[in-house]
Please model this.
Amino acid sequence: MKNQSSVLLAEDDELLATLIKHRLEKGGYQVILNRDGKEVKEHLNMSIPDIIICDIMMPYFSGMELIDFVRNELNSNVPIIIISSAGNEENVLNAFELGANDFLSKPISPSELLVRVAKELNKTKRAD
Amino acid sequence: MIVEFLFYEENVSIAEDTNYAHLKSEIRNLLNNPFNRKVLIDVLMDLRKDLSGNTLNNLFELFQSLGLHHDSYKKLESWKWQTVSKGILELTQLHVEDSYVFIAKFINDKRSTIRKQAEIAIITLKNEGVNYFLDTTTYRISEWQQLKILEVLKNKTNYLPPSFNQWLLSKNKDVVLFSLRLMKVYNQTDGNKALIELLKHKNAQIKFAAINCISEFHVVSAIETLKLVFWNSSVDIKIATLDAIASLGSSAEIEFFKSVGVKESNFNVKSKALSCINVISPMSVLPTSGVQSVDKFKIPNDIDNETLTEINIDVIEHTTPQNEDIVTINESQSDTAKTALKKQTNIDKSSIQEELISEIQEELVSEDVHLNQDHINENVELPLETKPFAADIDSDIEGFSIDFLPLVFTDEKTVKSEKYIPNKNISDSKQIELSELELIFEEVSSEEIKVENVNEILIDEIDVAFIPIVIPSQEEINSKQNQENVKPLNPLNIDVIYSEIIIDIKKENKKPAEPPKIKAQQKTLRKKKKTAPKVPTSIQDITMKNIKNIECNAVEVDYDRKVTEEIDNDVFDSDLSLEIPRELTTIEWILAENEAQSEMKHKIKTILNQQDKASFKLPKPNILSENSISTMVLLNDIEALGDEREIPLLKNLLLDEKEPILREQIEYLLIKISKTEVLKREPIKPDTVVYSVFEEYFGRLDIQSKLILLDEISAVGDEKEIPFLRRVVESSKAKVHLKAQKCLEQLIARLLKEKEQINTEILKSKSVITAKTEIKISKENSPKISEKPFSIFEIDFDITRDN
Model:
């Protein structure tokens, strides 16, 4: 394994989630897959990953709420990459205002995602 | 497994490569099952939405390498439109370029969904798809479809659009329109000549699109054609054409716009033409509607009219050529034309004056500029009527009725010089606008007005026809003539001589409409003179009777003025010195009139009452007994509802009834019923068509319901249903035919059974009756048993002794 950075992937679309997970794992990341917002919250309360990749539209807990939870309740600066099919300006701006680090509109290229994840992790490493 | 395939890279380790080969064989085994193939296609289709980039290309390759596209080809062969559509969608979404040829066949498919899907597919699959589509399509291309195709084209990478002007020659109107749209999108200016030619197209949509393209590409050479085409176009096209000319043209086109403004009848086109003039040369046409006249504005007193007119002249000299044109027309036209043009010039004048006032005020306030009298050139011919407003009004007032206006006196001079004469020169009057009048009002106090002989003026104008004519005596007239000063009359001091006049009522009744004859009246007057010397000398002596007589006399006089004149001459000039009331005051006249009227009314009432008693007697009520009333009700019912069956009853009633009214009614009914045609109708024959209640309902049902209903008919129907079922049997539908036949048989069988049952019951009942009757008869025939109780002692026997 090149590195052992943990990635929390929150995506309700099973097929896409599997695909991304596979790609990230292939890229050398440890991927924790969560299907809905509730699971994500539970997991975050236990441990905070190196990076979070989440969809905006999820059951129980939306991507926006998740950002707010991480930034305001957990007070964590963990990088968050948002994936959304609703890539309109309002959503993008809202996500960035709340504290998202990156935004990807569907359809996504898994390879591109991999690059973005690496970039964000590098940033945090540099900051540390 | 799919993910492994998607992210497979060639430069991997041997272990991974062997794993990949193993997976491939595994998946091929799985794909032998058609269900698995279907699931895999769906998964790939689903993944395709969320993926992009290299992974997506891998997905496309996977789809073809697994041979799943063959499944999609198979779908194209289906006769179901939805399957074909799904096949086309799969091949398009998963980019199977080889399918282009197969899909292109559906470009002119009669099923619109397939056709539209194919259009999108071939444009998506290959760049030359648009060319093929525009070449071959014969159907119309909807606006939505055009937008979708445009979206596909925009998303295409490395796409070089063809020259779309080649499709401007297409026979398909929509292809031409779409080509024009594409030309506009890709800014293809190489088809200007074709665009100019399309301006002459008979189709308005194409014309409109061509005009839009010409405006967009700024094809100046099209102006002449646009002008030519303009006159033979619809309103919308005309407006678009004017817009295009305005955007392309120069000041040379102003004349064209002016001619459009004059010749065009449509308001929108006219106003567009005017706005186009402003587009070419801004502010050459100024707004006129809603612009107020300067006359209405309050001007400060220190600015006199002369100053205004001076500036008017200056400004008008410097006005636009348009205004000059109008002015020259105004000067050269005849008087009648002048009045027609006045409105227009007034509008111009008002707008100019408005500007002037604002300018003057600014100048006076800020710079305190004194306008020099030298500026006024007296020899200058004024293009507009630049006289002071008051003078304008004077000239206008001459021919205009201003009776309704209040008399306002500005000063003594004007009052004297301009004496108002009502209705002056009405015949020569010109029609002028009220708004054009300029009036200067001043408040007038009561002290300032010295009105003389107002009473005279008033009396001249008052209509006194309603006042009864009072005939003065000759002496009175003479004395009046002699007296210069007329003293006011005191009604109490008047000596009135009354004479009683008896009206001959008989004569009046005979000829009430005729006015009284003077001779006859003279006679009566003479008679009265002899018999009635009693005449009241003062007002206290006047009795109501006298007043009545006076009234009668006055009424007679009022009939006709000629008559009164004759009376004047004849009666008063006669040698009989008859004393007739000479003067009566108004109060006396009113009193007398009221009294006479009430008396006359009373008389009329009494006469009418007498007549009523004599001739208009109401019929006495004919009270019937209760029995008769019920009979009457019965007869009414029979009249309304009865038929020939009521004849015997009516006959019986006629025999019993004694009341003449009822007898009359019964006789009338008997005649009526026996003569009524309706009741003479023949009874319904059994051969006539029998209506089945199911028939109407049956026609509306579907086959299944019909079959159910037929079962019901066989179960509950009666004889009426037989002819209906026979008609149903003739039905073309096999199911219904068979069912109806079966039902008919069942129904007939059931009805026969029922009849048999009824018959047996009847027979049974008959046999019971016969048995009973037999018993009865036998009983009647059998010897009668003695009614007395049997007694042993009645046995007739003899007791004997046997030894």
Notes: Chain A is about 50% helix and 20% strand. Residues 110-127 of chain A form the longest helix (18 residues). The interface with chain B takes residues 13, 15-16, 18-19, 22-23, 26, 85, 106-112 of chain A (CB under 8 Å). The mean pLDDT of chain A is 88.
